[in-house]
């Protein structure tokens, strides 16, 4: 038996020129920490539920793990997403009717004299708030799913195109319902358009909520409920007539839209915390006033009111106001928890 038939000795195995027989053994590493002596081997790749070691890790240490490391350009910390700045609801002009003091106007807005029949008014208010309740129920159910279900959060962060597709649906249905009297009054097309609009805006709202922690979402929800109840009670009790200030609300709507466009453009290039919070504060205050304005148009005991045929428009107006208040408050609370 020749010497080559015996397994190699210890001294020979340490020789870097040694070539294993049969090709079944791995080649020694060519790095500065060989497996055979020298420096110690690196720790194995982590697995299991606690797969990431504690302490700061280098960016990109474990590629392919979504939400592990923040992207540049967005706020981080509690109340903010780990993947950058959350999207904002698109800056669209708030629902602003063109009030017509004459009964039977094309826009469906009449003077208070056409509301002499109290039973018609009460039935109209009940119908509007019933539709609004269903809209808010659907929206906040979707927000709850987007907030508490982690796979949904992951899907949202990986598929931003769905958000922009829902924005396109939201914008088209919003324009049709506000500007086109025929589809807005014709059943069942008005209900179908309103349902599509609600689902699109619900997805957008849920997407934004998924970027914030649960505490911020719940707190924003609670404050929104309190604000809406207080504004509604105030509008039913006060003698202040918001419907007579149509010019002020028109200017306010334009200011909110222009401010939103400027803020969206600036934040897309560089995140400025104070600008984001300022826009959120302006939006929350403005849509609280719009909620009071649309509520008084609905109850019909002021200078101008909504025609009883415009129950879809009434529900649409209140729904947009409530959702915008919620989103703006969520941005403020999320920013406050970060600072």
Explain the layout of strands and helices.
Layout: H1 10-13, E1 109-111, H2 118-148, H3 150-158, H4 160-179, H5 181-185, H6 189-209, H7 214-237, H8 246-269, H9 273-299, E2 304-306, H10 311-338
Antiparallel strand pairs: 1-2
Structure in words:
It is a multi-pass membrane protein. Keywords: Membrane, Transmembrane, Transmembrane helix. Belongs to the BI1 family. The chain crosses the membrane at residues 128-149, 161-179, 191-212, 218-236, 248-272, 278-299, 311-333. Its main location: membrane. The protein has 339 residues and is mainly α. The protein has a domain at 115-338. Helices cover 57% and strands 2% of the residues. The chain is built from 10 helices and 2 strands; from the N terminus they run αβααααααααβα. The longest helix has 31 residues, at 118-148. The relative contact order is 0.15. The model is unreliable at 28-43, 52-83 and 98-115 (pLDDT under 50).
Question: What's the tally of helices?
Answer: 10
Morphology call: globular
Structural class: mainly alpha
Instruction: Kindly provide the radius of gyration, computed on alpha-carbon positions and rounded to a whole number of angstroms.
Output: 30 Å
Q: What is the beta-strand fraction? A: under 5%
Question: How would a crystallographer describe the biggest sheet?
Answer: 2 strands, antiparallel
Mean pLDDT: 74
Helix fraction bin? 55-70%
Distance between the termini: 78 Å
* Spans of at least 5 consecutive residues with low confidence: 28-43, 52-83, 98-115
H/E topology pattern: HEHHHHHHHHEH
Strand order of the largest sheet: 1-2
Number of strands: 2
């Amino acid at each position: 038996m020749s010497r080559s038939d015996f397994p190699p000795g210890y001294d020979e195995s340490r020789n870097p020129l040694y070539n294993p027989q049969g090709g079944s053994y791995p080649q020694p590493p060519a790095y500065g920490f060989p497996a055979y002596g020298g420096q110690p081997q690196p720790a194995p790749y982590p697995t299991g539920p606690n797969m990431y070691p504690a302490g700061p890790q280098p960016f990109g240490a474990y590629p392919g793990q979504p939400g592990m490391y923040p992207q540049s350009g967005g706020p981080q910390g509690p109340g903010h997403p780990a993947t950058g700045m959350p999207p904002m609801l698109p800056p669209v002009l708030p629902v602003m009717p063109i009030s017509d003091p004459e009964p039977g106007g094309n826009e469906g807005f009449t003077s208070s004299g056409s509301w002499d029949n109290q039973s018609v008014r009460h039935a109209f208010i009940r119908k509007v708030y019933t539709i609004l309740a269903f809209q808010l129920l659907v929206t906040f159910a979707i927000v709850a799913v987007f907030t508490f279900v982690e796979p949904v959060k992951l899907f949202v962060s990986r598929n931003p195109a769905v958000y922009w597709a829902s924005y396109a649906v939201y914008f088209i249905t919003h324009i049709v319902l506000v500007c086109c009297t025929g589809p807005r009054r014709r059943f069942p097309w008005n209900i179908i358009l309103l349902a599509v609009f609600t689902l699109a805006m619900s997805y957008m709202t849920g997407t934004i909520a998924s970027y914030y922690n649960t505490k911020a979402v719940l707190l924003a929800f609670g404050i929104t409920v309190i604000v809406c109840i207080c504004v509604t009670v105030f509008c039913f009790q006060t003698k202040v007539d918001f419907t007579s200030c149509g010019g002020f609300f028109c200017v306010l709507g334009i200011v909110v839209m222009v401010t939103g466009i400027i803020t969206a453009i600036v934040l897309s290039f560089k995140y400025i915390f104070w600008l984001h919070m300022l826009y959120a504060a302006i939006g929350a205050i403005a849509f609280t006033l719009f909620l009071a304005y649309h509520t008084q148009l609905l109850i019909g005991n002021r200078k101008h009111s909504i025609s009883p045929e415009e129950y879809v428009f009434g529900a649409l107006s209140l729904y947009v106001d409530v959702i915008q208040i919620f989103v703006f408050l969520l941005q403020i609370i999320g920013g406050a928890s970060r600072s």
